[in-house]
């Protein structure tokens, strides 16, 4: 009889334990997040890993999507009703997805959480549509100008003084190129539309230019800086200050064009800093804000990703919790800054213990604050496609010398695209 009672108690205990386990399982939820490959994926993984460490019952599974496939895959998954719970999205595509109703409105979170107001302005602007908020900054990147200090020394230039205008870029490039021995003054990827909106357009914006139209009634490519920058590029090209390989470079050598060590000046991004430290420790270089036509004019292209919730997410409430958490001190400092990644909160971008002794990173943090991102629909057609009016203008102006004609044709085509 005691054995039977023992067995009865054992069954009761097992039943109770099973019930507790099942209840716990029902409460636990896992989320899915897509991130695009490259530096954004690394930053996204860092934040997901920290979340998983601190939220053991609500794990995030990260899937890395090839950058060129992300927009199509995301749109298809939303249309099919099977999207990821969270999306780390190239910020330039936010306007198109917001207008299409493809993202969840998180205005309530933005109004209740004071950290939303602390986010870099460019990320707040690109995540807002018709007064509503659909995302926030997640994994930032930003453009800067880099110069080779060793080549500056050899050319008789002050290695601690970067170019402060587009014209100084030209003059310094001449002196570096005069060193000979396969040494060039300047580099850019002449067949890469994305590279050039990232590092060439800020030179124009710093000089006061208006770049892309928001609609068919807007203006495009306005201001003397558009022509002036293209003219300087053209002059450097005809003077042999830029290697011939630049004309056909589709971005494959966007970074190596500078890190090879035989180029004096190049536009680049904050991502180059950890790369040089790990792979090119002997390269003595500096980074500065991209200049305009006059000293004191500076700008940058704010890139990177926003974080948003696709319509149809199976874990919308938990996804909202993750977005709130991503802006916390813990995530911004112990997740991003600790790993050498810029925070997206302006109050922490420069003022944190991890960047105190990293002057190059401090420069990129300042670039985030002065940078811009174009809020436009159809960005891919205007800029990123291989046949976009942006890259056609750049190539015709720099390599063929048809500057005025190229600007006018690109302006007309951009306004046509904005009207669609």
UniProtKB/TrEMBL annotation:
SUPFAM superfamilies: Periplasmic binding protein-like II (SSF53850). Residues 1-28 form the signal peptide. It comes from the Bacteria. InterPro entries: Bact_solute-bd_prot1, SBP. It is found in: Periplasm. Keywords: Periplasm, Signal. It holds the Pfam family SBP_bac_1. The keyword Acyltransferase does not apply. The keyword Mitochondrion does not apply. Belongs to the bacterial solute-binding protein 1 family. This is Sugar ABC transporter substrate-binding protein.
